[in-house]
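Predict the holo structure. Ligand: NAP.
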Amino acid sequence: MRAILYRSYGPPDVLAMASVRRPAPKADEVLVRIHATSVTTADCRARSLDMPSGFGLLGRLMFGLKRPRRAVLGAEFAGIVEAVGARVDFFAPGDRVFAFPGAAFGGYADYAVISQSAAIALAPDTMALDEAVALSFGGATALDFLRGKGRIAPGDRVLIVGASGSVGSAAVQLARAFGAHVTATASPGKLAMVRGLGAEAVIDHTIEDPARARETYDIILDTSGTATYARYGASLKPGGRLLLAAADLWQILGALAARKTGGRKAIAGYAPERAEDLRFLADLATRGRFRPFVDRRFPLARAADAHRYFESALRSGNVVLTVDPA
Ligand SMILES: NC(=O)c1ccc[n+]([C@@H]2O[C@H](COP(=O)([O-])OP(=O)(O)OC[C@H]3O[C@@H](n4cnc5c(N)ncnc54)[C@H](OP(=O)(O)O)[C@@H]3O)[C@@H](O)[C@H]2O)c1
């Protein structure tokens, strides 16, 4: 089968098409014929080893000390179940599925195997696979931060710092679906897009510092890596939560050490890949409450161009790679 491989860390040019052996499903695994995968910040970090400050060693431990341990990227994929292992009972050949292997990767290929107990779910009937593929990375991260770590509730006032990216564009829609009032920040060319996703108020982060506005929030979710507790603590209501999805080590340590009053909190951490979250996101999508924002699609063979575009300032939301039949 065809796969995009990378054998060394570096710029998008390290990605190249190759022919590799098609995987066979083990007893508890599902073999998926992939229709679409995507470019995510996880793929780009694993390709470039460009990690948040203080996490360089962790990156090498995760992705491979000297060279990449897993040659096939692709943190999320969608496709049709081709075959199942002997002990698989949740899925059958022909099922339309989407999956979120995360740092286990594997989506940049014609086929991938994934355990039936990993993050895999039926794709919404109402959504094409080259759209459903982008439900998981941004959606599951936004869901874990807003609902899991942030305990979002109806009526909350929520600020999304960095609302135009993959996580942010999902967070705006999810926060609205949870009944919150959403203020969103983005660069000027992307303000209309975040408004279109449901943000009630928008802030151009290139001319206005959201931390300087008088408004206070129950939840501030930062996806941009620019937030510190020192900067945003005063913008939190009593009991408010600053959710640091993109913090470097120093921001996390600073937030832990900061004196917090009135029950305010700063929360960082990892958003895990869970099948139940994918089912929740698929249900929201079916009910028309969440639709991943897909900026551009590229064929898998142009993965390097897709990475270049993803890393440019032009890109908003998600970039999908379509996998044509071999
Ligand atoms: N903790 C976890 O488990 C977890 C999981 C997934 C992702 N992440 C991390 O979360 C972050 C976001 O991921 P993503 O895929 O959503 O990234 P992304 O698509 O690149 O989005 C980044 C966002 O940050 C904004 N931004 C960039 N520079 C800014 C600045 N100087 N001031 C304000 N906003 C700025 C961008 O807005 P404009 O383009 O409009 O400027 C964009 O909305 C990444 O660092 C990723 O590694 C963490």
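The longest strand covers residues 29-39. The mean pLDDT is 97.
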